[in-house]
Amino acid sequence: MLRVFKQGALKEITSKLGDIVNQLGEVDYEQLHEDFCSWFQRTIKTNRGKETSYGQAAKTIDVAMKVIVGYCYLPRLEIAVRLAPRLHATIDTLILNDLKKDHRDNSEIRAINTLADITQDKYKKLQELLNKEAKKKGQIPIDYDDCLWRRLKELR
């Protein structure tokens, strides 16, 4: 994903994510997520100098938080355990295409071709769909997206 962003973006993103990790457990996660995505869209440009989308910003924080909180149990175990169920499922091209296939009747979802097409409203709708599926499977969203991603990867 970093190859999509301007040179030097990694340093800026890493610094901002570090700030977020320091606030986990103290500030509402949804607010941290929204603030990061807003900052990302204002600050980070694509490698072609274009503005980034909410979908690109969300994928960045969603992957980072899955690893930091869900896999590494940071910043502390008790915070990670409490926070993990509230983390967002990661939406990448593979998962997006699967959602489009499963929701052919939804023209708004069908119209999304890449992460660059995902606005904040569309992101929330996609998260609702993923959360509903995760709940059906008895999983938290970050576990559901891992299982779905592996299954889709095997089918390729």
Give a quick summary of the entry:
With 156 residues, the protein is an all-alpha fold. It has helices spanning 9-23, 29-43, 54-71, 77-83, 93-102, 107-110, 120-137, 141-155.
Report strand %. under 5%
Order of helices and strands: HHHHHHHH
How is the main sheet built? none
**Sheet/helix structural class:** mainly alpha
- Helix proportion: 55-70%
Overall shape:
globular
Rounded mean pLDDT score: 95
Weakly predicted, low-confidence segments: none
Number of strands: 0
Number of helices: 8
Rg over CA atoms: 15 Å
Query: Could you tell me how far the N terminus lies from the C terminus, measured between alpha carbons in angstroms?
Result: 20 Å
Describe this structure in words.
With 156 residues, the protein is mainly alpha-helical. The protein is built from eight helices and no strands. The chain has helices spanning 9-23, 29-43, 54-71, 77-83, 93-102, 107-110, 120-137, 141-155. It starts with 8 loop residues before the first helix and ends with a helix. The model has no long low-confidence stretch (mean pLDDT 95).
List keywords for this structure.
single chain; 156 residues; mainly alpha; globular
